[in-house]
Write a structure and sequence with these properties.
By secondary structure, the chain is an alpha+beta fold. The protein has helices spanning about 5-15, 25-30, 80-95, 110-120, 145-150; strands spanning about 40-45, 50-60, 65-70, 100-105, 120-130, 135-145, 165. Strand 3, helix 3 and strand 4 (about 100-105) form a beta-alpha-beta unit.
Length: about 190
């Protein structure tokens, strides 16, 4: 994901997560850490004509990885694009030496939970009222990356109509630190997606 993807990503964000959409500042803040040696990795999926139809983000600090967000345009759901985006995040977490990959997913989002389970994620807890303002609980899921190595599809298994790209932003604004739901000094999001 590059800075010029923020506008179309934000439009998709508002469509998919109207109650708890991230702000443009939050995406800028995340991309500010998506550089070589940074703690973030963001990728977008685009159609052959360049339309953004999905995006995903990873935070990797030390040996811990966390799926920050993953989203697919409703017209492209069920096509394998979510799996391709998740594959990219799992591979990047493994490349960065993470032992585990964590994520939160709404307890009422069974479709996403099934995708995560296919990758080997297992439930490890509940965060009560995590998704605001609706007060929806989050199911916390964990993937042991060493055990998952054989579950990740090869890179050429991505649907040919879509591709994912990832890169650092060409330029980043000043640090726009947002309050975090989980007290980690390096997290710059205030609302996770799942």
């Amino acid at each position: 994901m590059r800075w010029w993807h923020i506008a179309p990503v934000l439009a998709l964000e508002l469509e998919l997560f109207p109650e708890d959409a991230w702000s443009a500042g939050m995406f800028w803040s995340e991309l500010a850490e998506a550089h070589p040696g940074g703690t973030r990795h963001y990728t977008v999926a685009v159609t052959p004509d360049g339309a953004v139809v999905g995006y995903a983000g990873l935070m990797a600090v030390g040996g811990d990885g966390d799926v920050q967000t993953i989203a697919v345009d409703g017209r492209h759901q069920g096509t394998g694009l979510g799996a391709a985006l998740l594959t990219d995040l799992v591979r990047e977490a493994a490349r960065r030496g993470c032992a585990d990959l964590l994520l939160e997913v709404r307890v009422d989002n069974t479709r996403a939970q099934r995708l995560y389970e296919r990758f080997g994620f297992e439930p490890v807890g509940i965060r009560r009222g995590y998704y605001q303002p609706a007060g929806i609980d989050a199911l916390v899921m964990r993937l042991d990356l060493a055990a998952a190595a054989d579950r990740v599809a090869p890179a050429d298994h991505v649907a040919p109509a879509d591709r994912t790209t990832s890169a650092a932003p060409a330029a980043a604004p000043e640090d726009l630190d947002e309050p975090a739901d989980r007290p980690r000094p390096d997290v710059k999001k205030d609302t996770p997606h799942g």
